[in-house]
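Sanity check record (used in CI):
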Amino acid sequence: MWFFARDPVRDFPFELSPDPPEGGPPGPWVLHRGRKKATGSPVSIFVYDVKPGAEEQTQVAKAAFKRLKTLRHPNILAYIDGLETDKCLHVVTEAVTPLGIYLKERAEAGGLKDLELSWGLHQIVKALSFLVNDCSLIHNNVCMAAVFVDRAGEWKLGGLDYMYSAQGNGGGPPRKGVPELEQYDPPELADGSGRAVREKWSADMWRLGCLIWEVFNGPLPRAAALRNPGKIPKSLVPHYCELVGANPKVRPNPARFLQNCRAPGGFMNNRFVETNLFLEEIQIKEPAEKQKFFQELSKSLDSFPEDFCRHKVLPQLLTAFEFGNAGAVVLTPLFKVGKFLNAEEYQQKIIPVVVKMFSSTDRAMRIRLLQQMEQFIQYLDEPTVNTQIFPHVVHGFLDTNPAIREQTVKSMLLLAPKLNEANLNVELMKHFARLQAKDEQGPIRCNTTVCLGKIGSYLSASTRHRVLTSAFSRATKDPFAPSRVAGVLGFAATHNLYSMNDCAHKILPVLCGLTVDPEKSVRDQAFKAIRSFLSKLESVSEDPTQLAEVEKDVHAASSPGMGGAAASWAGWAVTGVSSLTSKLIRAHPAAAPAETNVPQRPTPEGLPAPAPAVVPATSTTSGHWETQEEGTDTAEDSSVADRWDDEDWGSLEQEAELVLAQQEDWSTGGRASHAGQTSNLDPKSESDWSSWEAEGSWEQGWQEPSPPEPPPEGTRLASEYNWGGSEPSDKGDPFAAVSSRRETSAQPRPDSWGDDNWEGLETESRQGKAELARKKREERRREMEAKRAEKKAAKGPMKLGTRKLD
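Expected output for N-terminal kinase-like protein:
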């Protein structure tokens, strides 16, 4: 029978790195980097090779193995696994770096801040306090070589080779036999009797003073150098002097030393130490304390070390969200820490949390996610956006909170490039149509127009042809002045997506109507756009061969590159209106805003005169073009160029602030003159979106002219007059054709805009619709009354089961 001896080192679940050893504390141990075979996670492996004739060293190494395996404390080197054979000892710990090497590397990169050093020394002193006060153990080896640093920058106390019991039941302190370590022994041990030692912690506190000196000044050349504090901070010098005093009775207990350093003005009394102490006890903190902590954490993260944020703060943030119900307060610090991660780490740690957050019904979390989407949108892939994020985000369009609706619209600027055909060209356009037509907030309607102008390049050719012209035309009829400006700028920003026929027959007539707008800012932008479109038409007229080049983007599937050009006008619009909406929400967070006081547009002839509206003294009447503005107008380029890409289209933020200055509040005042022209949200239509094609489609305008009113009684038609001719007036009337044309003007001609769903802009107004509906109800009521009267007039009652005869 064969017996195979198994090599325990080969079967060990950890393996040494081929890199040369990093060194270690002076003594028998050698520190190697390693990794776990199953997962590849990094570890540190302390190796001791048993040598013949070194039984004393072997016993010291085995004692250190046992101590490290049994002692568990956050500030003591964490034991993971171990291997003990006749030839060697292997101790596996968390991945660490010796403090000496760590300080040297950080010095080359700019040095450690006092914040990091204060927390590191705090950890070492806390470990000594645990050993002395809780375990009655003397470390007996506190020095630079016994301290290690993990990947989060946490200092760990190791070097447990020469530890002994303070109660004396385990014998006296073991002999070191290493000159590099004996130089840290206190002077009272020089006589060898040890009778001068009065407190059990006195020797370790002297060695702690040596460690503090080395941290700030480098390697200790001799004990006499301790008299000069050197670069030790002034706030730490008094406490340091207590540690290296010649009288061992004066040296403080580790716990009292921490208390002194944490006093007001002390070296360890700072935000970094407080943050670490809170994180260590976060599991037992009250929810209110956690909320306050995470709210204040963002302000401090900029001054904290990057490794600390990645490896200590981030896991606590993820745990707080996953199990602590921290809510939206963790978002700001979470995304701030996420900047320190590479793409792979971000995908593994942050993105799963973000996707889960979008499914939350917490409004505070939703609005913070939308506000900070720019920080993580680049890490989201298209399937995740379309299947897990967009279905939740789209609910924000229907939210009753204006801030949620506005942030949802803004987020589409970032989500649009990643949306698929159905979500972008169907679902999103449905909600944009509804917002632009029915939302009672002017800034939200304006932002919808701005957003549509920027994402227009991502739409399909058929959607662009069906949506853009109608949407921007509707915006130019909005009672909110910045929305009309946004409509004009939308036409200009998407100029390359329109054919020459559309420019001449659809766009220019709309822009020309804005040249008599009550707001000067609207008129200025309209004139600029008109000149630009006319220049484009004129260039094609002069050289018809340019037509193909000019219209190359009209039928293109999509042109994402154009999004950069649109950014020059979309950025300010979103920013400017955002401030208005935030003011509006702060002023009236709960009540539904009333209609807005805005300068009224001139009433076309043939329409009923609007009811008088309350207009501030600074605004002008519709009979004057020049408006009195409180602020300064946007600076315009004196040279008018023909290309709109190089022009300054003005600042919508300044224009919006001007309108705000003319009104006390966007949510108060009367918009009586637009009572029948603007569309307000109706509870029934708010809940039923199945008929959005009919009620919120792009083809439905903001206002439609009503049929001409009948002439007053006694007014004679032109055909009733005898204009001096010998023939009677009932013969051919030269103005009869004009009357017939007015009656048939609503019918679309073959070459009219009606072929492109413009009938909504030329149909009867809401007042006319309401009057028509009232007449139908009256007719229906009369029909029902007539039927009931016929039934009553029938002769005799009808018998049950008999057949009714006509």
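The chain has a mean pLDDT of 74. If this sentence no longer matches the regenerated tokens, the check is flagged for review.
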